[in-house]
Structures are given as structure tokens and as C-alpha cells.
Amino acid sequence: IGIKLDASINNKHRKLLLILSLSFNLGLLGFFKYFNFFVDSFIDLFNLFGITLQHRTLSILLPVGISFYTFQTLSYTIDIYRKKITATKNALAFFSFVSFFPQLVAGPIERASELLPQFLKKRKFSYAFAVSGLRQILWGLFKKVVIADNIAQHVDIVYSSPENFYGLPVIIATILFTFQVYCDFSGYSDIAIGVAKLFGFKLMTNFNTPLFSKSMKELWNRWHISLSTWFRDYLYYPLGGNKVSKPKWALNIFITFFISGLWHGPSVAFVVWGSLNGIYLIIEALTQDFRIRFYKLIGFVKFPTILKATQIFFTFSLFAFSLIIFRAENGYDALTLIGRLPQQLITQVTSVDAIISTLTPMFSTQLELVYLLCSFALFISVDLLIRNKGIDGVLRTIPTFGRISIYYIIISWILFFGAFEKPQEFVYFQF
Q: Could you say which of 13, 55, 224, 264 is catalytic?
């Protein structure tokens, strides 16, 4: 289809080819990932009206990475249709682009214009490029094995039995899950990008310290960048983007995040999670002038550090709240956890002893909690340090002895504090 699109000058013919490509790709994705979801939803709708239907779903084996490589192939034909790139006639290069092993399973979702040409040119081994990749792999392993996998077991305690927890444990588990999903997925992305560098390929940055963002807009510009920019370029902009009336713009944002939630999985929970984040962005944009006047009124503008910390706190809280829906086993559990968030919270935080006794069910020993806090402190310090330059950019500026010392500290930390006894699957493998 790409080759035919490139050769055709008839607009009607080109549109038909594009529709064929979109239908085939989205049809495969819809069948394998959403067939049972839509059948069940259809049956549930009829049940609301008292109509019982006989139905049968299929035992479909989901192809590995289908959500990710489907979007890559879609962007390929769409960009050819838009005449941003030309079609390749090199089948090996094309299929290598679609199924490049480091990022096949969970991204980053690459554009043909960036990745495909790299298969068409001869590559020479670069020591500096390989070392850069190893640095990213090392930091990705730390985030995955030390932070995400250690956090997972404590989050599971609360989210697997929400009826047994309320107040502080629910809040702590939700905060921990926010860091878990970030460290898990950004850790995978770092490893994928690093492995690609070892083979001479450059992949796009997928995360840029999003949890320290001052607004939801900034957070989504830094979170899963390859997906958010894909939806921006191939859905949000074609809908009109922000070059329309405010009601139409708000609808464009909502549709984009609604579909983004559906992309994550065939579940009402993911749709609600995506929609909620879309609503956050709409409200944030519509209240911007009011918030600026409010900050001036209470004098926050005179204290930029306090203002920035407050904005980061509220942005993180809103995003973490939405992740309750993302993480809960089902809708009932999500509502249970949300309802139990404020229960007995004041009583639980009245003293150090009360806090310790409240958190005891989540942590088997105080030493376990201390290890996790120390790992957290190291992670947050490094994540803040690399916010502008990235792990490779920062380490390159450090003298040799200091740089090697940092390598050994991180390696030792992984070996001593990594959750090797309870390995966790990458969160985004399910998508």
C-alpha cells in the first residue's frame, strides 16, 4: 500500500488506499484485542433493558506487541499519504522497522521517518554510542528491579484486598503505584533505547521525568512521549487541535484521551482513566487565567519555589488519583478504594506510632521500609539531576573516577536491593 500510495497522483485513489490500510490495521487490532470486549459490552447494554442474549466470546491469543507495532505501521502509511516520507521498496528494512526487537513489545512507538532510514544505511560500531546505551540500560535496570519491583509487592497488598484498608495505607499504596508504573515503564524504555544503541540505532526518548511536572499538560508532554505525540499528530491535529472554538477544542481533547484510554486495554476502567485525564486537561486550560489571578491575590508569585512545589503536588495528586482506576482489579474495587481514601485519616497521622501501626500490614519489617526509603531517595535525587540532560548527558560531564564510582554504586545497589526473589512482569506488556 505504501508503494502504491507513493506512485499514485489520483487523490481519490490515494484516499481509498489509505482507508484500506487503516481498515486492515485497525481491523486486526480490533479483532485480537477488542472483539470480546465489544461483544460483552453489547450484551450488557441489552441486559439493561431486560433483554437476555445468547452469546459466545472467542479464546483469542493476543499477538505480542500488537498495540505498539500497529501504530507504527499506521504512521508509516499516513505519513506517505501526507507526503512527509516516501515508501521503501526494501522489504527487509520495512519489516525490521515494524518488528525491531528492543522496542517491539512495549515501545517506544517509532516513526518511519526516524527509524526506517537507520536500517538503510551501513552502521559502524561506536564506542561512545554503546557506552551511552549501557548507561541507559543500567539506570533502566535500577528503576525496574530496585524501585518498581520492590514497590509492587506492597501495592499488591492493598489493591488485592481493598476492603481491609482505608485512609493512609490507600494513599501510600496509590503514591507507590504511581512511582511503580513510572519506574517500570520508563525503566523498560531506557533498557530498550540502550539495547538499540548497542546495535547502532537511535530511538526516541519516551519519558522525561514527568512526575515533577507543574501541570497536567506538562506531565503528558513528558509521559509516554511516543504515544502522546502519536495521538497528537494522527488524531488530535486532524480533529482540529486547538485551532477551533473552545467547545470543539474541549471535545477534541476528550476524544483523544478517551481513545488513548481504550488503546490501553479493552476495559471500561481504562476508558474512564483516559477520559478523566482528558477532563483534567480541559479544566486546567479553562481555569488558567483564574488560577494566575488567585496566585497573585494570595502572594504565591513572590515565592516561586513554594508555588512550583504546590503545583507539582497538585499535579501529582490528580494523576495518582486517576491511577486508582487504572490499577484496581475492577470498578467495584476502584470505588471502594476511592471511598476509603479519607476514612480515619486524621486519626492515623496523629503520631509516629499511629503511622507505624497503620503501615505495618504493608511492610513486614521496619528495615524493609528503610531500604525502600533509601532507594527512593537515591532514585529521586538522580531523576531530578538528569531532568534536563538525561542520564547520559549528566554522567558524561563527571570526571572518570567519579563516573566509575557512580556505576559501581548503582550496580551494587541493584545486586543488594533488587527484587530478584519476586520478579515482576513489565506492566506495559499487557498492552
A: 264
